[in-house]
Structure formats: structure tokens, C-alpha cells
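Below is how a single chain appears once it has passed through the pipeline. First comes the sequence as given, then the structure the pipeline wrote out for it. We keep one example in the README because the format questions we get most often are answered faster by looking than by reading.
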Amino acid sequence: MAQKPSIPKGTRDFGPAEMVGRNYIFNTIKDVFRKFGYQCIETPSMENLGTLLGKYGEEGDKLLFRIQNSGEKAALAPEKGLRYDLTVPFARFVVQHQNEIAFPFKRYQIQPVWRADRPQKGRYREFYQCDVDVIGSKSLLSELELVQMVDEVFGRFGVRVCIKINNRKILAGLAEVSGQPERLVDITVAIDKIDKIGLDAVKAELFEKGLTPEAVALIEPVLTLTGTTAEKIARMRTLLAASETGCKGLDEVETLFGLIDKAGISQPVELDLSLARGLNYYTGAIFEVKALDWAIGSICGGGRYDDLTGIFGLPNTSGVGISFGADRIYDVLSGLNLFPKNAAAAAAVLFTNMGEAEVAYTIPVAASLRRAGIACEIYPDNTKLKKQFEYADRKGIPYLAIVGDQEVTDGTVTLKNLATGEQRSIAKDGLAQCLAEIS
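Resulting structure:
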């Protein structure tokens, strides 16, 4: 009996229509990255397991896909794992190639990552990230650039988003003034779940982690703090007055929001003091982007990391970056019907095949269209016109170029608009200009 074809849970095939949409996302994001001076790199799908372990926290380590060693010297080879994100491999890349790159190093990277997570809506085991980072500078202008790029990318997509910002130093200060500085990781991991499990469940987890009722009572109102950015900062300055780290975080937030005001960002930007980002390596500003008109998790996130490269032997090299979740962005654009209307078409026009003489006439005409940058096809088989019409319709090709013996005699092409049924005769030498004008 034939084996039933299938793929692992949490992974997906992408047909031609989906790939048109995905490439639209990738190309838009790449174009914005390049506008800000970022350059592309790629790293291997697998890394040595030691590179990955301990960088994502206890929960992140559990989600690493480990690769079984094989081959003659498998027992001696280091264990390997599929990359969990693009940031840790990037830090490894920077240290390994530090003598070949110019600092500050501005890179972007669009590749798949893997997480041994429970598959559910909007959460996959294999998915693409579109990362952009700058490493080798502590300037808050880098954070501003990330906000500007988020603003431009989603402006081009026509998606309304809210850009949420916090600072891990503020959270560290909160842990200090609550008398639980050693519990910072526990606090951030719990707070990071607030959108998924709610405030009461976050409080319960904090109690489970050993925080005192007094500490939880101090943290709780911060997570629900409302008001303008200035009002939130003023309230936090009072609360964190005894924490030098917390005050430094507030200074950074105040400076960053001042830069954002000058930059004329069109999307709303919010200081969200409940934003934590569960990854251990963040040390400064943290970002998360939510779609306003489509219910889904964050579609973009990142932050500042002061010493991620130190793990690999290059200390005191600060970086900051953000990652666009291509799969979730696809779901948002699809759900809101925001993909360009003509994006699915493989070609602008299909030439009919009505015999050898007609095809011989068509080949140079089609070649001239392609030289003009117009995608076109010649139907490969001489078959009924109805079948050729149906092929164009199924592929979303908007125009049919009919070439019969009369067109060959007259030096013309009959161009049919498949949406309206309108057709007209056009000189073969004018077809490219005509299609350029109407498409």
C-alpha cells in the first residue's frame, strides 16, 4: 500500500500563491533594512549545542531541537542543535569574524528557526524570522532606527500596529526595590506571560517562585499603570528612587521617547511597563509590536543586549535588534486582505497555442515582453482554447493573448481581459507598451 504523504506537525508547505505573499513580505522588509544601511548575512541551520544552551533561559532550553550525531566519529563530535533564533548565532558570527567586519556592524538576516513547541494557531515549530541588529554601539539612535523601520515596514503593508517599549533596567530596579534582586529572571519570565494568562495567574506564578506578598504587592500596580509616557516615568521615578539601575533605565526610556517624538513616527508608540520579553540576554530597551486590527500574538519583538558576545570571548560589545515574525505577518496580511491585488499572478499575459506556425510567430513577441520586464507564458500544448482559458484563470493570469492565423497574417495579437471579457486587436510591436499602460 502506498505511504500517505505528510509533514511533521508545526511545519507547513507553501504553494505558489503563498510564496508570492511571503516574498512580498520578505522583499518589503529587506528593502527597508537596506534603506537604513543594514547588510545581509546567513548562518548555518545547525549550531554546536554549547552555542545555544543557556542563552534563552530554562524554558527556552527545553524547546531546542537537538540533532543526533551520526557518522564515523559521531561519538567525538560536539552535540548540535537547530537554531532557536537568529540573535545568538549572530553573536557567535560577530566574534568569529570580528577581524573582517566594521563596527558598529549593522546586519539583517532572513532565515528559518526551529522550536520544539506545541503547535497551535500562530505558533509553529519551523518559522522564518527577519532579524535586524546593530552591534558595537550603545547609542540610543540605534533603538530609534528600529522603531523607524517598524513604522515604515508596517506603513508599507497598510497594517496598524502599536509599538510597545520597556527597559529591562526598569524591571531590574523593580526587583531591587521589592527586595528580590536575585529573582529578576523569575519576575520577567512570569510577567512576560501576562497577555496569555492574565494578571492573577502571573501573581500566582510569582508566589510559586518564592516572591513575598510585599514584593508582589509592589510589582502589581506597575503592571497596570496607565497615563501618558511622562506620567508613567514620573510615577516610576518615585518608586525606583533607591535603585540606580532602575533610574538609568528610566533615563534611557525618556531619551528614546524624546528621539521618537522628533522622528515623526506615524504608528502609536507606548511605554508598557508590563512588557518583559522572557529571553535572559536582554539588558536595556525591549520592544514588542502588536497588530491593532487582527487578533494574534506579537508580530515583532526584540531589545538591547549588552554582553551577548562576551559569552563567545568578545566582552563589552553592546548590541540591539528586533525580529519581524514573517509567518504571523503573513496571517495578518491575509486576514485583513492587504496583499496587493495582482500579487498572485504568475504572469501578466498567457499566449495561446494554436499550432506550430502561430507558436513560431509568438516566441519573439513573448521574448520582447520579457525584455521589457513583463512576465508572460506561452501555453505549451496545442489544445482546446477552453482548456487554455481555464489554465489562465486558475493561475490568476489577467490577460490572454490570442494568436491565430489571422493575427499572424495581420502582424497583430488579440488581447483579451479575462476579468471583463473585453478584447482588442493590437500590433505585436505595441503589445509591451499596451500591457505596461494597463497593468
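The chain is about 40% helix and 20% strand.

See the next section for the split statistics.
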